[in-house]
Amino acid sequence: MHPNALLEMSSELLRAVLQLDTPADSVVSAFFRKHKALGQRERHALAETAYTVLRQRPLLQHLAQSGSGPIERRLAILGWQGNEAFLRGALNTQEQQWLEQVRQIDKTQLAPRLRHNLPEWLAQPLMARLGEEQFWSLAASMNEQAPLDLRVNTLKGKREEAQATLAAAGIAAELTPFSPVGLRIHGKPALNKLELFTGGGVEVQDEGSQLLALMLDAKRSEMVVDFCAGAGGKTLALGASMRNTGRLYAFDTSGHRLASLKPRLARSGLSNIYPTQIAHERDERIKRLSGKIDRVLVDAPCSGLGTLRRNPDLKWRQSLHAIQELQAKQTAILASAARLLKSGGRLVYATCSLLDAENEAIAEAFSAAHPQFKKLDAAEVLSRAHVEQADRLVENGYLRLWPHQHQTDGFFAAVWEKQPS
């Protein structure tokens, strides 16, 4: 494809993505379905350019003001993630001169909002929580691409075997530092053609998400509920932890999300999982299981702000008002899920949010309202689940993962045990 044609296509994709009315990954997928002739390298350049512009939108919009021509084209030039020589071939003389001038600007001297690239409603509580130095480390990490983490399906093989299989296919994978069942790949190889993947030997799952399943520590022959299962990444991890025995209910209000679990379930070799669509957290099917369940994981609906490396559009699509609405939902879901547990049962509440409002605030309010639930120390729970360096992952007894400190998505988890009444 001619360089200018690809740059114009990048501008077209940005125009759609920057409307911010639909998740960016859905917009990108739809765009590629419409342009089936694009090759792998072209798709990579277009997608990563779009995500770079979303990550650094305030900075790039500020820098783009000095140029001329359509704003989306200027943003595509500034955020370009393809071949540099290819980009040069698409630019006229005036654009080349402008790009050189922009690249000479000392970005460290710009206003804070143009350096952290976060909305103020998010930057302020994070600065207050972390302090100046840690905040800027976090902001820098959010502008980077996340690595690709895999969870090894221990029903089908050992971690070192999967690592060797990947190496034989020319894919370098390192052991994740905390999860005993994780591998980390840098770059984006085409895994979906490998037998290791198609045969269910590995699943794509962030290391932080793997740790949530390990915290629940689901055992053989137990009754377990994944209360907000979504597409089922943690459900599959729990099923493997149970060695394909017992009963594992995967509840979700979205039939569409549960449908995307089915092909993954087929690959996994698991037969102990029961995907179940529910109307809401007080559904009759939940009431019938009240007091009968050994372990419940509540990976609650949340802002998703811990995943900004993967989903940078979220910071522009979320708001303080939306967070307040989510808090009410999180409180109700956690209270409802707790009713399922039998005496001695374990409850884990988790989010992929960075904000105390969705994390500690919800957990502490639950503890105060439910004295029969004893908070367990997350470091001890993780150590018993063979998680390395568990103390590094915990603040005030809660799991607290930060992208800049742990190279995972941002995660929070609290764990309780139901005491005999």
Main sheet makeup: 9 strands, mixed
Distance between the termini: 70 Å
Low-pLDDT regions: none
What is the CA-atom radius of gyration, in angstroms?
Answer: 23 Å
Helical residue percent band: 40-55%
What oligomerization state is this entry in?
A: single chain
The number of distinct β-strands equals 13
Based on secondary structure, the structural category is alpha/beta
What does this structure look like?
The protein is of the alpha/beta class and 421 residues long. It has 22 helices and 13 strands. The protein has helices at residues 3-17, 24-34, 40-55, 57-64, 71-79, 84-90, 93-103, 112-116, 120-130, 132-142, 159-168, 195-198, 207-216, 233-241, 255-259, 261-268, 284-287, 314-317, 320-338, 360-369, 378-384, 403-406, and strands spanning 148-152, 173-175, 182-185, 202-204, 223-226, 247-252, 273-277, 293-299, 341-351, 373-375, 394-395, 398-401, 411-418. The chain starts with a helix and ends with a strand. The relative contact order is 0.10. The mean pLDDT is 95.
